[in-house]
Write a structure and sequence with these properties.
Largest sheet: 8 strands, mixed
GO molecular function, one term: adenosylhomocysteinase activity
EC number: 3.13.2.1
Number of strands: 17
Family: Belongs to the adenosylhomocysteinase family.
CATH architecture of the largest domain: 3-Layer(aba) Sandwich
Number of domains: 2
Helix content: 40-55%
Structural class: alpha/beta
CATH superfamily of the largest domain: Adenosylhomocysteinase-like
Protein name: Adenosylhomocysteinase
Subcellular location: Cytoplasm
Low-confidence stretches: none
CATH class of the largest domain: Alpha Beta
Length: 472
């Protein structure tokens, strides 16, 4: 495929930039949080000197985030965190604005990891000093690269997946190409990372528990105005959008199976039910299972659903949720997709030896020896970004406002010892601030407590209104 490559960008078609710019301007109207942050913080340039390596879906909404970070003083390089999630007109618009970006929809895994490595070759020399991550791949490249550079290379010969084969090959290549101690230089330079997703956060907590986290991290995912909005309300709108764009299937009356009833699963189940599906949910957690039952969903195992489900959606963050054996038992042309994070929720690698027919981009039919077929969307990667346009701008404004505030928090406190090599969350008052920034757009009017009322329940008159342990 011919790609447009400039001095410091790789995109599919730079001529799409004017279209991308028009959609960015439309999105800005629907992203009041980010625009308010630009207005409030822009004059002070709180990110001046920050060199942010961003690995997050290169969408129109992300373009608004990138330009917000730039407006606050940051220097930026960007890649997508998913091979199918880039919106090519968004990438073109960012490249045309002079911001280095390496992303296009439909990257190979080799290209994906090559582009991730380009985050750390800073334009003008040097390396980044901040990471903004989604899923943790940029963070993992630094950690695994340093591990190998320090002599612990045994893991490089023991990949556990096809993607790790490519990832580890990249590390070997970088060790050969870069000056000795390059990974150590990068690790030392990074002053912090803000992480967008549940999957990436799990990786950070694991590193921190093992005492191996190389720099401070802010868990953006567990900000209430991220997980309870993006994960829930975003999925509620974008899942069915993706299913319809990918398959044109009539949703009403179909039986849909959702694996997992966390925030993403809750939004996904609601999306399907609102479209008229009869929804079956599976869960390992008795609390989430009880929630699903009391919301009126049938709660059962995937084995129970196999004879009757028409649509399967994984939303767990775990692996091997839908196995090859499960798929062989599904109804003919059952639709299978994932809205968790990685493609290993579905055993896609185990389908290689069956007959594949590509219907259209990100829609494949796999035929089994018995003659039954499944329709696999986005090769098991994020269906809402692969087959549709992701979450709406408004809900992403909430998530990305948290990302921006996290970057400011880490950068402004990089030298004062406030943050150790641990995983933190944003303080409650910032969570409430992000919510407040989005109320006017919806015509919401807040009730104000009197001082007497605030004193009576023991909270400040202007917040925070809830303790940190409050669950919403």
């Amino acid at each position: 495929m011919a790609l447009d490559q400039g001095n410091d960008f790789i995109v599919k078609d730079i001529s799409l930039a004017p279209f991308g710019r028009k959609e960015i301007e439309l999105a800005e109207t629907e992203m009041p949080g980010l625009m308010a942050i630009r207005a409030e913080y822009g004059p002070g340039q709180p990110l001046k000197g920050a060199r942010i390596a961003g690995s997050l879906h290169m969408t129109i909404q992300t373009a608004v985030l990138i330009e917000t970070l730039k407006a606050l003083g940051a220097d930026i390089r960007w890649v997508s965190c998913n091979i199918f999630s880039t919106q090519d007109h968004a990438a073109a618009a960012i490249a045309a604005a002079g911001i280095p970006v390496f992303a296009y929809k439909g990257e190979s895994l080799e290209e994906y990891w090559d582009y991730t490595a380009k985050l750390f070759d800073w334009h003008g020399g040097g390396v980044p000093n901040m990471i903004l991550d989604d899923g943790g791949d940029a963070t993992m490249l630094v950690h695994y690269g340093l591990k190998a550079e320090q002599g612990d290379t045994g893991f490089l010969d023991k990949p556990g997946s096809d993607e790790e084969v490519i990832f580890f090959a990249l590390i070997k290549r970088l060790l050969g190409e870069k000056p000795k101690g390059w990974f150590a230089e990068v690790a030392k330079a990074i002053r912090g990372v803000s992480e967008e997703t549940t999957t990436g956060v799990h990786r950070l907590y694991k590193l921190a528990e093992e005492g191996k986290l190389l720099f401070p991290a802010i868990n953006v995912n567990d900000s209430v105005t991220k997980s309870k909005f993006d994960n829930l309300y975003g999925c509620r709108e974008s899942l069915v959008d993706a299913l319809r764009r990918g398959t044109d299937v009539m949703m009403a009356g179909k039986v849909a199976f959702v694996a997992g009833f966390g925030d993403v699963g809750k939004g996904s189940a609601a999306s399907l039910r609102q479209a008229g599906c009869r929804v079956v949910v599976s869960e390992v957690d008795p609390i989430c299972a009880l929630q699903a039952a009391m919301e009126g969903y049938e709660v059962a195992t995937i084995e129970d659903a196999l004879p009757r489900a028409d649509i399967y959606v994984t939303a767990t963050g775990n692996k091997d949720i839908i196995t090859v054996e499960h798929m062989r038992q599904m109804k003919d042309r059952a639709i299978v997709c994932n809205i968790g994070h990685f493609d290993n929720e579905i055993q896609v690698s185990g389908l290689k030896n069956f007959k594949w027919t590509n219907i259209k981009p990100q829609v494949d039919e796999i035929e089994f020896p018995a003659g039954n077929r499944i329709i696999l969307l986005s090769e098991g990667r994020l269906v809402n970004l692969g087959n549709a346009m992701g979450h709406p701008s408004f809900v992403m404004s909430s998530s990305f406002s948290n990302q921006t505030l996290a970057q400011i928090e880490l950068w402004q406190n990089r030298d004062n010892g406030k943050y150790d090599k641990k995983v933190y969350t944003l303080p409650k008052f910032l969570d409430e601030k992000v919510a407040a920034l989005h109320l006017e757009k919806l015509g919401v009017k807040l009730t104000k407590m009197t001082k007497d009322q605030a004193d009576y329940i023991g909270v400040p008159e202007k917040g925070p209104f809830k303790p940190d342990h409050y669950r919403y």
